[in-house]
Amino acid sequence: IRPPVVAMRIFMADVLLKPQTQNLRLTEPPASQKLRPLVLIMALLLITGLTVGVVRAASIRMATTGGRMVYGAEAMMDPKKHGSCTGPVQKNLRWGCDGETSDRICCFNRHYAEYSGFWETTSFLKTADQTKTVFRDPVSGKPLFIAPIGRSWEDFVAESRRHGWPSFRGAEVVWENVRVLGNGETISTDGTHLGHNLPDGKGARYCINLVSVAGHNPTGGDDDDDSDATPPAAPA
């Protein structure tokens, strides 16, 4: 069975556009020939509609099952109990990250970041699980990123070193808890400032402050236990 768009194109080629070899005299065309331009226009409109419908359906399926980038509204960063956050950051953040710095960057800031290379001065590279590290919101403890996924630990570290901050790809984002605003600012669904989406030749790249993802598991369990995380999305 041919797809409807292909079938309609064949119909147009074989019937609507077929050369007429009879009755070549300059006489008044029959009614059926007068209607042919109208039928052709209707067929073109139908093909256009079907094509748009197929593309739209594919986009809907992709957005639902492909885990593409999830955008958020500016209102998500409106003032709350503690700046843009629902509360202050946790105590004793992972990897020796400073709580005061984290609180300032996460909850009372929209544009600035920890200094370039800061993440390498912490214990992160020495103690992080190179197989799977869960990066958590320092306020709520919700999982925000899981890395490395779709690449090696060495690739993750190398890319982060090139840019100066932990660098995540779409496959490593837990979109249930992360949003991207129109200007590229990347935040948690609870209003924590994380960093920015700074795309490169490979696609979306989330340049994130380590102090913004150094939270602990709120259950008190293993920080790298991702059982409270929706499976990470496909690359954006």
Beta strand count: 7
Number of helices: 6
Radius of gyration: 27 Å
How would you classify the helix and strand content by structural class?
alpha+beta
Task: Specify the biggest β-sheet.
Answer: 5 strands, antiparallel
Which outline best applies?
globular
Explained architecture:
The longest helix is centred in the N-terminal third of the chain and has 35 residues, at 31-65. This protein has six helices and seven strands, in the order αααααββαβββββ. A five-stranded antiparallel beta sheet has the order 3-7-6-5-4. It has a two-stranded antiparallel ribbon with strand order 1-2. 32% of the residues lie in helices and 11% in strands. By secondary structure, it is α+β, with helices and mostly antiparallel strands. Mean pLDDT is 81; it is low at 4-27 and 48-66.
Question: What are the key terms here?
Answer:
5-stranded antiparallel beta sheet, single chain, 236 residues, alpha+beta, 6 helices, two-stranded antiparallel ribbon
Write the SSE topology.
Layout: H1 4-16, H2 31-65, H3 99-107, H4 118-121, H5 124-127, E1 133-136, E2 143-147, H6 153-163, E3 167-168, E4 178-180, E5 185-188, E6 193-197, E7 206-208
Antiparallel strand pairs: 1-2, 3-7, 4-5, 5-6, 6-7
Helix pairs in contact: 1-2
Quick summary of this structure?
The protein has 236 residues and is an alpha+beta fold. It contains six helices and seven strands; from the N terminus they run H-H-H-H-H-E-E-H-E-E-E-E-E.
